[in-house]
Design a protein that fits this description.
five-stranded antiparallel beta sheet, about 30% strand
Amino acid sequence: MSAIGNVVMALTALAALIFAGIQCRDSLRQQRWAEEQERKQDARELERRERHDLELRESRNREMFRDRQREISHVEAFAVVQRCPGDSSKPQFRYGIELSVPTEASIFDVRLWVRWVESDFSQKPRCRTGAGGEGREKCYAVPGASHPWRMVRPGNWLIRPATTYPWTHPQPLPSDSEWMSIYSTTDEHQVTEIEFTDCYGNTWRRRYNASATETYAAAFELTYANEEELENFVVDD
């Protein structure tokens, strides 16, 4: 009987060990599953926070872009005309360009691209791609393709094509001036583009839709971002 009892006791002990092993294994599996779920939850929370931070950063960048754009969005350039004194039966006109800078700070590296039928520029015509006019207009960079005005102060300025540039600054345009703006898209005197850099070092380009039939629309684009917050808003050529 003692031998049988010893066997029974041994089997009971073995069964207890096996059961304890199974419980330990299940416990470890449960612990690992809980740790894995916790890691996934932490990863989701981290992803959520990163996404929220990214959205917040993008929102701030968009607002910064809008602020920068609003500050200089009214910088304009357009052709102007003035009637010359003389025989009223044969009116004569002279043409120029008005550069309007209604900003609190100066703008820099200012360059205009214009269509001008007369050959009264001191430089040779130099057109951008697609800036021609069916062979009639001549396209010029003012004051020059590689010599912009380094700085133009706030105000309204008159640019005469026959003036020597870039060594002279545009002339102030009096408030009672008789120069009248030209917005016609069929006129032979047009500003097609203006480029300049704001006081933060960002470069902007306004393209006028000179080929439109009724409107004189403009596209205002950021072409270089000196501030890294604006880099995603740069328009590629």
